[in-house]
Amino acid sequence: MTGLGLTTAALASALLAPGGHDRLTPRPAAPPVPPAVTVVATDYHLALPDTLPAGPTTFRLTNRGRELHQLFFVRLDAGKSVTDLVAAMKAAGEGPLPEWATGIGGPNGVDPGATSLWTTVRLLPGHYAALCIIPSPDGVPHVMKGMVSDLVVTPHAVSAAAFAHRPDVTVTLQDYGFQASRPITAGTHEVIVENGAAQWHEIELVRLLPGKTPADLLAWTKKMAGPPPARFLGGVAPLAPGQQNELSLALAPGHYVMLCFLPDAKDHKPHFAHGMVHDFVVE
């Protein structure tokens, strides 16, 4: 793998299995107050504006490809380009992104044929890369197949209305776990997801298929053989330490799992192998 070292064994969720919209896939929650942007993913392209105004912006990803895709935003320091980022990821292999690149999240991996949950990102003025780092079944990350775009965020006066909604749950990403301020229950929730850890982390939210367990999901990630035992709904793409997103949830009844696939800085095992996996039931 390249870049963040998202291992094929962990994220080759480039699922060719059928899924998409079916009776097991909840409808995405209504967007919060900030401006909303729907981005379309195909194999291997992201269709999104090349310029957006600064401020909180709510994104969802519609996946029209045959593989799992995400929308991952990386803020680049002045003087750095998307070409520089891709070259650094290629050179780093399993290593981390360079210090001049900051992961600020976005909608995480969603099944082919489905639309992700809404994820709100607070965009600062500057130059960004929008990319997908999930690998194909051949182990090559989608960014290395051209799934990366430039995004320029222009200065903009943000109205108070953009901050008017009130998140009711906070999930703090830790080394290695998810610390929620309260249980996630039925109904609509606005969730702040913040990385309070020393390492980069993410939330991938999946819904287990009937009769399947978290153990089935973790066993499947080892070989990715056969249809997955869950539906991938989205979540929050990788966040650097100190970064946060807001996630809009309106989950249908079912058994859910949130987990982090990113590799550990020391042993390169996925964080879920270190215990960063949490399951909960919505009734």
Counting DSSP H or I runs of 4 or more residues, the number of helices is 3
Instruction: Classify the helix fraction into a percent range.
Output: under 10%
- Strand composition percent: 35-45%
What is the string of helix and strand elements? Answer: HEEEEEHEEEEEEEEHEEEE
Radius of gyration over alpha carbons? 17 Å
**General form:** globular
Major beta-sheet overview: 8 strands, mixed
Question: Which residues form runs of ≥5 with pLDDT under 50?
Answer: 5-25
- Number of strand elements: 17
Structure description:
- The structure is a single chain.
- This protein is mainly beta and 283 residues long.
- Helices cover 9% and strands 36% of the residues.
- It contains 3 helices and 17 strands.
- The strands form 3 sheets. An 8-stranded mixed β-sheet has the order 2-1-4-7-15-12-10-11, with no helix packed on it. A 5-stranded mixed β-sheet has the order 3-9-8-5-6, with no helix packed on it. The protein has a 4-stranded antiparallel β-sheet with strand order 14-13-16-17, with no helix packed on it.
- The longest helix has 11 residues.
- About 7% of the residues have low confidence.
